[in-house]
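Our preliminary data section would be incomplete without showing what the modeling component actually yields. Below, a chain of 288 amino acids is followed by its predicted structure, encoded as tokens that our downstream tools consume directly.
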Amino acid sequence: MNKIQVGFLVSYDYELLKNAIPPIYKESDTIFLAVDKNRKTWKGEIFSIDPMFFEWIKKIDTDKKIVIYEEDFYQPQLTAMECEVRERKMLANEMGIGNWIIQLDADEYFIDFKNFVTYLKSQNKFLKHPEKHPVQISPFLINLYKRLENGILYVNEASKVMAVTNYPDYKFGRNTKARIIYHDSVILHECLSRTKEELIQKFSNWGHDVDVNIDSFIKKWETVNDTNYHTMSDFFYLEPHKWKTLEFIKADTFSDILTNIEKTDKIRPSAFFIWKKNFGQWFKHLFK
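Predicted structure:
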């Protein structure tokens, strides 16, 4: 028990795991890849995985810590979000209650996972009776918005993500509605920095499929660039005002993106912000 268990839900964007797995490999005890055995998305669409991807997994898994977990995750009588919650709970049970349950998406790349794991281990008291003291640990996402020829646009305010819990009673996506403990660790989220075709596939098959006006979003996404981004606002695909503005950095490669974003002074929430949020959560759940 008290292990660092990391799980990914594997679907049509599985190739992104080649960026997501290496940063968390060394510090993880086990890495679970949840794959629908019939290769269906939560909307029932068929996807395929190149056999060479599994060869890549074998090649990088030098410590034999990667587990392929296949099940019937798509249920036609359920909505896409209900399928997502069901799969996350099934995966969490495989990962084992009594451990830190970390669920990441294929397009989420941890920066300094070692530091984050050190923090989690300092909070192992929450693993003794997790059902009595459920918590969620939230690092922050840096959301990449659009790749351009000479760089990338990203959302200039980090957003919380309930990536970790001690008690995976998921209610909506990864959210258990339990007390949140914020930590200033950062995850690079290749959320929207894809091709138009990939974005349409993403929006059509994920848990929020009924919540997104795809046509309206794509129109703005196609229009914004490195010369006009500062004249536009409200970029989030669910509630536009939550992503108020974008920033631009020059970058030729994915490695450049990582390096240049880390150099900015805007990627990590301040210590006071973290303290204020954590005090608010502690007080909110004090009498629950």
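The chain has a mean pLDDT of 92. Residues 80-95 form the longest helix (16 residues). Preliminary results of this kind motivate Aim 1 of the renewal.
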